[in-house]
């Protein structure tokens, strides 16, 4: 389907879903087909990395989903990399739901999750820098990010010609940022940065 939306389970099958309103909740295994279809829609356009059912299953606890009634309108994931930092990734909004605040609601929900888990900062890779700027993120050199971030790059077709921008947001003002070149063993300075995870078309 080119509209990127699978037919998810009915609203009554999703605890917490309120009829007639946008509901954010943690993803469940039953959401995997809809998540795959939404992500693969953008992967086909070259703005997200494709994901397999196994990959989504393995990382399902990272995901938050946005439903309106029975329809999946968006998703996003918070993936932990260090004890104090995490990445917002796989952020996608269904084409028919754009410019309705779904992306903002998802990002704020993931940010709150990060704060509740004690993270000091969150980061993302994106083509829509202005969207993240409005939410308090700033551009950073990709070489400041954890080495583990780059594992997805090996399977990306843009490995040698990345055009994404890294953005970061500090969640606490009483700590020194940990994503610096002095964080031995976790960081690498790359001369030819590569794609990690697209934050697509909010």
Secondary-structure topology with pairs:
Blueprint: E1 22-26, H1 32-44, H2 53-58, E2 63-68, E3 71-82, E4 85-93, H3 102-116, E5 121-126, H4 129-133, E6 138-140, E7 165-170, E8 198-199
Account of the protein in words:
With 202 residues, the chain is α+β, with helices and mostly antiparallel strands. The protein has a single domain, classed as 3-Layer(aba) Sandwich (Aminopeptidase), CATH 3.40.630.30. It contains four helices and eight strands. Strands 1, 2, 3, 4, 5, 6, 7 and 8 form an eight-stranded mixed beta sheet that branches. Strand 4, helix 3 and strand 5 form a beta-alpha-beta unit. It is globular and about 40 Å long.
Compute the number of structural domains: 1
Molecular shape: globular
Radius of gyration: 16 Å
Query: In CATH terms, what is the architecture?
Result: 3-Layer(aba) Sandwich
The main sheet comes to: 8 strands, mixed
CATH superfamily: Gcn5-related N-acetyltransferase (GNAT)
Indicate the percent of residues in helices.
Answer: 10-25%
Name the CATH class.
Alpha Beta
Q: Total helix count? A: 4
The protein's oligomeric status is single chain
Q: Pairing-aware structural class of the strands and helices?
A: alpha+beta
- Could you state the order of secondary-structure elements as H and E? EHHEEEHEHEEE
How many beta-strand runs? 8
Q: Mean pLDDT across all residues, rounded?
A: 76
Which percent band covers the strand fraction?
Answer: 15-25%
Distance between the termini: 20 Å
What is the CATH topology classification name?
Answer: Aminopeptidase
Uncertain runs are: 1-20, 180-202
